[in-house]
Write a structure and sequence with these properties.
four-stranded antiparallel beta sheet; about 25% strand; about 160 residues; alpha+beta; about 35% helix
Length: about 160
């Protein structure tokens, strides 16, 4: 009988402790944060944007990066273009990403890494001008990322 009471008590403790909300909180204020960085490429003016969503527990739950772009005289964004941006062949020719990867695929890897790491401490550069991410930093990214990282950094600063 004592064993049964003991088992029931242990079971109740497990159930109650399992229902308790986590007391751990993230590093940021709840909200949606937006930042932009203007840049010039091949004589055209563009803007990189980053949007972060931080949940009520202070964790970055999503990161969205995009960049304005002009293709065939039409103003759009690189994410809107998807495969029509045409980076896969160039990416493949660099020889780092088997089969190549489009711009949006590489940016999605950066977005995912920001959510996983909850900051930008993982960013490493291959050069002093901070234009190319080190291949050790994130697998599958060969794009120039300085404006993307800068925009994310600005959004994170707002969230602190």
């Amino acid at each position: 009988m004592k064993k049964t009471k003991y088992l029931i008590l242990m079971l109740l403790l497990l159930i109650v402790s399992g229902c308790e909300k986590s007391r751990h909180t993230g590093s940021y204020k709840e909200g949606t944060y937006f930042a932009s960085v203007p840049y010039v490429s091949y004589g055209e003016n563009y803007v990189t944007t980053a949007t972060l969503y931080v949940d009520r527990y202070g964790y970055i739950k999503s990161c969205f990066i995009d960049s304005t772009y002009i293709k065939d005289g039409v103003k759009t964004t690189k994410k809107t273009l998807k495969d029509a941006y045409g980076m896969k062949e160039t990416s493949n020719n660099i020889g780092v990403i088997a089969g190549g990867a489009e711009w949006y695929e590489q940016v999605e890897a950066i977005e995912k890494k920001v959510v996983e790491e909850q900051d930008l401490d993982w960013v490493k550069w291959t050069d002093d001008t901070k234009t190319k991410l080190s291949l050790d930093t994130i697998s599958g990214v060969t794009i120039s990322a300085d404006t993307y990282i800068e925009a994310i950094s600005k959004a994170i600063e707002q969230a602190k």
